[in-house]
Amino acid sequence: MGVRLMVVDDHRLLAEALASALKLRGHRVLAAAAPAAGAADLVISRAPEVCLLGTAAPAEPGTFDPVVRIKRERPQVAVVVLGPVPSPRGIAAAFAAGASGYVRHDERIEGVERAIMKARAGEAAVAPSLLQGAFEELLNPAAQPDDEGQRLLRILTPREVEVLVRVADGEDTRVIAAGMGIAPSTARTHVQRVLMKLGVGSRLEAAALAARTGLLDRVGEG
């Protein structure tokens, strides 16, 4: 039986893509996008069974204020946070606010659906690998704080970064090849390597991930 849910995220393209994928799997999606400031009002007014709430900065103060309000006014709504690889503080803040789970935004749709079902059943919906990573970071803190955008930028070569920027701009393989002065087959190979390194399955997901983590802004700053 499908879940009555909402996808609330200020990245409309990502929210609508996720909503469409969940509809195809038999779920009833009530809304697909909204700015963070209006998230709580939207969820409270529609009262879904589960809300997927997107965030780009889980460790920032006030990020989970909408979760607190939703749980206060609609305690029956299970909130699953959708965000980047979180810091231990990010995971702790999400659950402290009342979230039922945390899912990485580059998770496969099967993983998102599992989290939704667990949250509706009243279970904690968080991947063991995320918890393990959080505990490891708490026990062995890095010398300097890091963020997901910077980490992703480090694993891509300069040429792959250029390809990602062009993908995010909506260029197809032929346009990428012409702009970079390479063969279409080479451009296609670069695109596939970028998708593989980012752990995503499509250009749309790659563009959304780059935008959400601030990776494109960092390229511009460089």
TrEMBL record:
InterPro entries: CheY-like_superfamily, Sig_transdc_resp-reg_C-effctor, Sig_transdc_resp-reg_receiver, Tscrpt_reg_LuxR_C. Pfam families: GerE (PF00196). It comes from the Bacteria. Keywords: DNA-binding, Transcription, Transcription regulation. Residues 149-214 form the HTH luxR-type domain. SMART domains: HTH_LUXR (SM00421). The keyword Kinase does not apply. Gene3D superfamilies: 3.40.50.2300. SUPFAM superfamilies: C-terminal effector domain of the bipartite response regulators (SSF46894), CheY-like (SSF52172). GO terms for biological process: phosphorelay signal transduction system; regulation of DNA-templated transcription. Transmembrane segments: none annotated. The keyword Transcription applies. Residues 4-120 form the Response regulatory domain. One of its GO terms (molecular function) is DNA binding. PANTHER family: DNA-BINDING TRANSCRIPTIONAL ACTIVATOR DEVR_DOSR. This is Response regulator transcription factor. The lineage of its organism: Bacteria, Bacillati, Actinomycetota, Actinomycetes, Kitasatosporales.
